[in-house]
Design goal:
Length: 195
């Protein structure tokens, strides 16, 4: 009896993985070579709701490139783009993810969850108030940030000739008053340290 049990176990442990491979890979095989079996298998899987999506492997996948664009507004009404705006203007290449600096990571977290409060964004923008106040004769009155987002084009549309990224969508993100007490204290501390 033990020999039969071992044989049945071996058969089960061989056939089950093979059946799973057929279910997963089968619908992707070429129909012409296999006489329509892959499409029949795919239709059967839809009937019993066995459908694969990228959400199985990446529950919250990135669907767009997103950057932060930051501007300084001055007492006289001028509005000037800060260096962060250059990345939102020109940084749409595919190598960005492989060349992140600490500042890029701060920018990434500052732009997350645009409709919710975000302490990373708040402190990042306050630090820009300090940076710009130290670098200029006239410090900015406020810092204005916006999210610049370009959605990924679905692969079938890219194959049809569409560009890989959609048009830029701009959304106001936050405005920081550079005269508030945290910024004043940060600036005083920076001036004391750097002279």
């Amino acid at each position: 009896m033990a020999g039969l049990r071992d044989r049945l176990s071996t058969i089960w442990n061989t056939l089950l993985p093979l059946a799973l491979v057929v279910l997963i890979v089968g619908p992707a095989l070429p129909n012409a070579a296999l006489g329509g079996v892959p499409s029949t298998l795919a239709q059967w899987q839809k009937k019993i709701s066995v459908v694969q999506t990228w959400n199985m492997y990446a529950p919250d996948p990135t669907r767009a490139h997103t950057y932060i664009a930051v501007y300084a507004e001055f007492e006289d009404g001028r509005r000037e783009a800060l260096p962060e705006a250059a990345q939102a203007q020109h940084g749409w290449g595919s190598t960005w993810a492989w060349q992140k600096t600490r500042v890029d990571i701060w920018r990434y977290y500052a732009v997350l969850n645009p409709d919710k409060p975000n302490n990373n964004r708040l402190w990042y923008l306050r630090s820009l108030c300090v940076r710009e106040a130290l670098a200029r004769e006239e410090p900015p009155r406020k810092i204005v940030a916006e999210r610049v987002r370009r959605r990924f084009t679905p692969p079938d549309r890219v194959r049809a000739g569409k560009p890989g990224l959609g048009p830029a969508e701009r959304k106001p993100l936050a405005t920081i008053d550079c005269k508030t007490w945290p910024v004043r204290e940060m600036l005083a501390d920076a001036q004391a340290r750097h002279g």
